[in-house]
Specification:
Order of helices and strands: HHHHHHEEHHHEEEEE
Shape: globular
Strand order of the largest sheet: 4-3-5
Structural class: alpha+beta
Low-confidence stretches: none
Number of helices: 9
Mean pLDDT: 88
Radius of gyration: 26 Å
Largest sheet: 3 strands, antiparallel
């Protein structure tokens, strides 16, 4: 099995090298326009393979010459950041601080590009403050942390997942970041894997590469989660989803083992004679369109207008509106 795996990696390396353009970079397909994020993704994979002992033949001289020319002639900010990352990967000796400062002064960077620059600074050993990210973080309804950008139309490169991947790497490389924050970000990625997979193979590869080492720790593979219920009922649950119902008065305690999270919800039904208004995750207000007094006139048609404010991320919300 190990020999088959090595041969498979060698085949993938060969396919990547065959799809290189004449300038040593990559596009979406062979003989298409150069894409710097695809080139960076491919080169990162090839350099990792080389570090693992695989034979990877790259013309670094050609790459170096092309990168220097592109950096001085390409005016697209996102491209220039990717070019600098490629140059850092190639370990080229240039004044990264000067180029990063020049790009930062433009003032038209998207949130994703700002994150890219922060990570590039860390790669170049330029001091950064990860505290600035706190103002951008948001919570899902399950309490997990992610980093959205509501000012841009999302695409393959700039979306909540890609922003959060970058933020996670920046925070992990900052010694002041607490482990609980990183755990909540990892749980966000697992929360987004609702149907057993992420949106595409690129996103999956990025997430797994980013969080798997932290999930594994010193283990060869993450331990599957188990739920132990003790008290009036004793159970060990290994298969999920799981649901059970208790009789009134029964007392239990719940504990969990394993590396992966379990989302555990409990609820009970009772009559609340004096309900209090809550505005934790959602704010709901209702009005009638025909009156300001709250009284309706018999025989006159009226619309009930419901306004919902979502304070935390939730893909789906179901409302029951009693009439």
């Amino acid at each position: 099995a190990r020999i088959e795996f090595i041969l498979f990696i060698d085949e993938l390396i060969s396919l990547l090298l065959k799809s290189q353009e004449s300038n040593g970079l990559w596009g979406w397909w062979k003989n298409t326009n150069t894409s710097y994020w695809i080139s960076l993704h491919a080169l990162e994979a090839l350099y990792q393979a080389r570090a693992m002992g695989f034979n990877v033949k790259l013309d670094e001289n050609k790459l170096t010459d092309n990168m220097i020319w592109e950096l001085d002639n390409n005016q697209d900010l996102a491209d220039r950041i990717k070019i600098l990352k490629i140059m850092r990967l190639l370990n080229l000796r240039i004044n990264y601080t000067a180029y990063i400062t020049e790009i930062s002064k433009v003032g038209k960077l998207s949130f994703n590009n700002q994150l890219q620059l922060l990570e590039l600074k860390q790669l170049c050993n330029i001091p950064v403050s990860a505290d600035s990210l706190k103002s951008f973080q948001q919570l899902t309804t399950l309490g997990n942390i992610y980093f959205p950008d509501k000012h841009v139309n999302t695409d393959l490169q700039e979306n909540d997942i890609q922003n959060t991947i970058l933020a996670y790497r920046i925070l992990r490389n900052d010694s002041l970041t607490d482990k609980a924050t990183l755990a909540k970000i990892r749980n966000y990625f697992l929360e987004e894997r609702r149907n057993g997979y992420w949106q595409n193979t690129y996103e999956s590869a990025q997430i797994i590469e980013t969080i798997l080492p932290d999930l594994l720790g010193n283990n060869a593979r993450p331990d599957k989660p188990e739920l132990t219920i003790s008290g009036d009922i004793s159970k060990t649950i290994k298969e999920f989803p799981f649901e059970m119902q208790l009789d009134p008065g029964q007392k239990i305690s719940v504990s969990k083992t394993g590396d992966l999270p379990i989302y555990f919800a409990t609820y009970q039904r009772y009559w609340n004679a004096e309900p209090k208004r809550k505005e934790v995750d959602f704010i709901i207000t209702t009005t009638f369109d025909q009156t300001n007094s709250g009284q309706l006139k018999a025989g006159k048609e009226s619309k009930l207008i419901v306004n919902l404010v979502v304070k935390k991320d939730a893909d789906y919300v179901m409302l029951n509106i009693p009439i």
